[in-house]
Amino acid sequence: MIFLLLSTCFALWMVPDSINKWAQAFRDAFSFRSSHYFVSYLSMTSAQLSGLDIREVARPAYIEIPRSLVEVVVYWNMPMHYWLKTYIFKTARNWLGIFWAILFTYSMSSLFHGINFQLAAVLLSLGFYTYVEHSLRVKLASVFDACVLARPCPEKCHHQYKSKYRKS
């Protein structure tokens, strides 16, 4: 209920329309994310009441304060991420390579959302940005021998410099 109140009431009340356009954009984005969290918790509760074993749909803390853009994508909708990764990405990776498999997966996600140019542009650019970030982090982890990958390293990783960041 907190996320419902945040998305519909408090976000609009805390940041008025008279403030600059960047604060308004943040307010609108925060309101959208809060409504998504409410729907995620509502769907998780409905699924559990119907007998399905769904423990989490979204993790707001990992989305609001992410380690990387990859975490935002993973924790936005965890069951859908698992399905897309298992049935779309891993299948396409064998034929297309990682970069094209990522773009293909985001293309499929945009088709599942409905044919909307703005959403497709956001999802495809998100796919491109996550690939670039992942590639950069892999190179940095190799050069500096540090745990700076997009996802946290396991506790017994081979890097010399360990991360003190939260484990998922």
TrEMBL record:
GO terms for cellular component: endoplasmic reticulum; membrane. It is found in: Membrane. The chain crosses the membrane at residues 92-109. It is a multi-pass membrane protein. Keywords: Acyltransferase, Membrane, Signal, Transferase, Transmembrane, Transmembrane helix, Wnt signaling pathway. Residues 1-25 form the signal peptide. One of its GO terms (molecular function) is palmitoleoyltransferase activity. It is an enzyme of class 2 (transferase). It catalyses: [Wnt protein]-L-serine + (9Z)-hexadecenoyl-CoA = [Wnt protein]-O-(9Z)-hexadecenoyl-L-serine + CoA. It comes from the Eukaryota. One of its GO terms (biological process) is Wnt protein secretion. Belongs to the membrane-bound acyltransferase family. Porcupine subfamily. This is Protein-serine O-palmitoleoyltransferase porcupine. The gene is PORCN_1.
